[in-house]
Structures are given as structure tokens and as C-alpha cells.
Amino acid sequence: MTDEDKKLAKKLRKEKKRKEKEVAAAQEEVVEVESKKKKKKDKKRKAEKHDEESVEKKTKADFTNGPYQQPAPSDKSFKKSFYVESDKTASLSNQDVDAFHQEHHMTISGNNCLYRPILKFADVNFPKAMLKSCENFTKPTPIQSQCWPILTSGRDIIGIAQTGSGKTLAFSVPGLVHITDQLKNNPKKKGPIMLVVAPTRELAVQCAEVISEAGKSVNITSLCLYGGVPKHEQKRALKAGVQVVVATPGRLKDLVQEKCCSLANVTYTVLDEADRMLDDGFEKDIRLIMSECHVERQIAMFSATWPQSIQKLAHEFLVDPVKVTIGSDDLAASENVTQIVEVVDEYGRDSKLDSLLKKYHSSRKNRVLVFVLYKKEAVRVETMLNRKGWKCTAIHGDKGQQQRMEALEAFKTGKVPLLIATDVAARGLDIPDVEFVLNYSFPLTIEDYVHRIGRTGRGGKKGTSHTFFTNHDKPKAGELVNLLRDSNAPVPEELTKFGTHVKKKEHKLYGAFAKDVDMNKKATKITFDSDDE
Fold first, then answer.
1. Rounded-to-integer distance, Cα 147 and Cα 124, Å
2. How many Cβ atoms are within 10 Å of 409's Cβ, its own excluded?
3. Sign of dihedral through CA atoms 185, 121, 322, 112?
4. Topology of 337-507 in CATH?
5. What Enzyme Commission number(s) apply to this enzyme (predicted)?
């Protein structure tokens, strides 16, 4: 080997060693990076576990005001159900399920949400006695079909559906199943196990009637709590013991704070018409009520719309929910309602209303619901119609609870088939066979308009709404035009002259709506820097 060959071999050996050192250094760097990643993941996993274990406590401590900030103590008596499909439901193919969802404009979202709908009452896997209140129906409504298997499995749920879709039985039947399961685990359990919170007295009473009728067959007792009546009878009934409480937020909060109503054993909670409750400023009361319920609970939240305020509340309290939407997240008018909008002079409404009643209420036997905006307006319109010879009654906030109940009952039975009402009757009330809804005054929001006209066209029947629109309602013209177009309803040319611009949607409490809340993201606790430095 020549000297030149030796030098070349030496150079190659040095180059090889240099490369080996570089590879070794790179491998060490990779190992170090992987080690850091592993430590970071372990730290994150530990933090997530800690956050998951204390999420209930954190939420209540951060957002609940007042003396009742601590959640009810946990015990081992709560046991969630696990839904097992019946043979008939399990036999539904994925194509059958997709066809059902498409037919009813339904979307399901969430983790592990492959729940096949129950298409027939015979297909349920819970005791048939629970369905006693459904014996007059041929099959479940779409929201009942999809919500029953989800709720009886123990999952939290968000239900978005237009009014008149059968939501009350959608959450009350699984609630009865839940109560039965809880009493099997702990027969001596005291106090309410199921809680339903509703925004108005009328809606609370209606829910309570449905639940009471459904619970009779399985010996489950219920109680309705609302304001405007003395508390002593409600306190006595609570002391006697009930399994279900249906309540308005204000009265329930009062009884909880007075230590007359314990929610410590409530493991099935329903927020009905949640959007209306937040619109009416009940958020603080809702948070206090939720903090008083059992820390391990199942929650069903039903709403007609999905604004950011509702998303925020759901994100804080619901755990891994399944979301069932019929139609869209935005409010839509019922397809069963024929909408007529008439642009009129404000001072000509009385004579026009009289003319419409002669057209729509000529028999004086069919049910007609006339909506006004304010309590004083309800009194004036009722007096005016009585003076013109129409037999009518009214429901509004200035009337006592007994008077309101009597007016509703007279309207439901047909004794007085013409009812004048403010928006206290616009949400959730299931009044059978209302043929016509007349909007004497346009409501404050387009959402209330949709809820008003939803009092007709219920249970698959057709109905008609006739709405007066005046120059004072001009700011709402754009929203109304869009709604009519989306519903394939005729748009009066006079209405478009007011303009079709729609302002950015804002909430009276939360301001402009931002992007949707990610329901799969965990809630985080907000911390502030200390000033004492």
C-alpha cells in the first residue's frame, strides 16, 4: 500500500468516526426530545384527570353566587342505566336510520352517538307501563324516537327542536325509567329524584300535568312549584315527599334558600325552553339550582335555538352530551302553519281584527288565539272585543294565577274559544286544535313570532297565522322577510319596502354572538394575577 493509499484510508476512517458521532448526537437529541414530549404528555394527562375529577366543583365555585355554592355530596346510590336495544330496534340497518334522519331533517352529533331510533311503542326495552300516557298516539314523535334510547342509556342530551314536537314526553318517560332504577338501588331515597325547570308558570303546569299522568301507572308522585301563589301549600307537599319536581326558577330558588326543598338527591335534571330562561334573565338562578343538585347527575337540555348563551351553559354543566337537532340550530317556522303577513296602519288594527274574526271565527266555536304585546294592550283589546259582541277571555301578567288557569282551561275546553294573550302563552303551551293565531301586535323578537305561530299547526295538523305589521315594527322587517322566504311563504311587497337588512344578531345579556362553543373541549378554570406583589 502506497503512502497515498494510507493517507486516503486514514481520511476515510476519520470521516466515518465523524459521521458516527453525528448520528449518535442526533439519536441522543431525538431521545431527549421524546423524553420531553413524554413528560409533557404525562403532565397534561395528569392535569386532565385532575380537571375531570373536579370539574363539577370548579364550575360551581367559579360561576355560582350566594350561600349555596357547594354541590350536593356524592354517594354510591347513583347508578346510570345502560341502554340495550330491543331486537326490533337492533334490526334497523344503517340505511334505515339514515332514511329516518333525512325524512325528519334530523342530525345527531357527539361522541359515540350511534343510537338507533325507536320507531314503534312496541319496540321499547323499558316497562310498557311507562307508556300509559302515550296510548292515544300511534307512534312516537321523531324527537321521542331518537331521545328515548339516548336518555335511557344515561347520557346527557341537548335537544334542539321546534315547538309542538313532543319534547315533554321525550324527556319525561326516560325520567320515570330513571326514577325506577334509582329506587331499585336505594328504596329509602328521599326527596325529588327528577327536576324539570321551565321558564313560565303555564309551561311548568303543563309539564307537571303530563308527568303526573305518566307517573300514575308506576306510582311516581310529582309536584309543580311556581310563583304567584302562597308557599305554605307547596312546602307542605314537599315535606310529604315527591319523586318529581317541576318548577319555575324564581320560586324554586326561594324554596331552596329557605331550606324547604332539598335537591341533594336529584340525579335527573331537565332544563326546558332553556333559551327562553336565559332571555328572561334566569341564568344566575339556574346556576344556583344546578349547584344544589347531586354532583353525579344526568342532564337533558331542550331549546328551540342554539345561541352562544345556551352553548356556554351546556359546555359548563353537561358531560359528553349527544346533540339531537330537528331542522336546524336556527329557529324555523313550522311547515304546518300557513303564514299571512299584512302591513297595516297602527290605528286601523281594531277594525281589521274585527273583520278577521268574522272571517276566521264565524262559527264562534273554533279556537282562535290573539297575541298582543303588553298587559295593558291585552286589557284594552279584550274590552274592545267584548264591546263588539265577541265572547273572549285574556291571559297576561296582571292577572292572578287562579285567573290565568281559569282562562286557559276555558279556552282549552272550548267554553271560551277566543283567547287574548301576551307572550306568556307563546312558549311551550300545548293547546289542542287552535285553528288560527292572529298577531294583533308584532312581538319584540323574531323568535317570539315563531313561537307564537307555533301554537297552531300542532300534532301534524294544519293551521293559519295572520300577522299585523306596522311602521313601528320596521326594524324587524329584514328578519321577517328572511323567515317568510325560508318557509316558502308569500312576502308582501309593502313589507320589503321597509328594507331587508338584518342587523348582527345580539343577545340582550351577552352582546353579539361569536363563534360556536366547542362542546368537546374541556372547561378551564380562569385564574387572575394577584395584585399583592
1. 12
2. 12
3. positive
4. Rossmann fold (3.40.50)
5. 3.6.4.13
Cell of 257: 334558600
Half-sphere exposure of 340 (CA within 13 A, CB side): 12
Round to whole Å and give the CA distance between 241 and 261: 10
How far is residue 372 from each of residues 61, 394, 425, 441, measured CA to CA in Å?
Answer: 42, 10, 11, 5
Strands 106-109 and 322-326: antiparallel
What CATH number was assigned to the domain covering residues 87-326? Answer: 3.40.50.300
Partners of residue 322 on adjacent β-strands: 157
Question: In the predicted model, is pLDDT for residue 27 greater than 70?
Answer: yes
The full DSSP string for 511-533 is EE--SPP-TTSPP-------S--
- Tell me the three cell numbers of residue 68: 349555596
Sign of torsion over alpha carbons 278, 282, 284, 287: negative
What are the sequence ranges of the domains in the chain? 87-326, 337-507
Give the strand order in the sheet containing 367-371. 337-343, 463-469, 434-439, 367-371, 418-421, 393-395
What would the grid cell of residue 44 be? 397534561
The 8-class DSSP code of residue 123 comes to: G
Which residues lie below 8 Å from residue 16, measured CB to CB, with a gap of 6+? none
Per-residue cell: 54 = 373536579
d(CA 38, CA 286) in angstroms, rounded, equals 41
By the 8 A CB rule, do 64 and 288 touch? yes
Q: What is the pLDDT of residues 126-177, one digit of tens each?
A: 877 788 878 878 899 899 999 999 999 999 999 987 666 788 899 999 999 9
Cα distances from 461 to residues 111, 138, 455, in angstroms, run: 36, 15, 11
Residue 223 near residue 238, CB atoms below 8 Å: yes
Closest CA to 442 of 341, 303, 351, 359: 341
C-alpha count within 13 angstroms, C-beta hemisphere, residue 453: 31
Alpha-carbon dihedral sign for residues 498, 502, 505, 511: negative
3-state helix, strand, coil in the chain (%, to 5): 45, 15, 40
Same fold, 87-326 and 337-507: yes
pLDDT in tens, 173-204: 999 999 998 988 888 888 899 999 998 888 89
Instruction: Please calculate the CA angle 145-147-150 and round it to the nearest 5 degrees.
Output: 120
Look at residue 529 and tell me whether its pLDDT is greater than 80: no
CB 342 within 8 A of CB 468: yes
201-216 vs 167-185: helix crossing angle, rounded to 10: 50
Instruction: Say how far residue 333 (Cα) sits from the centre of its chain.
Output: 17
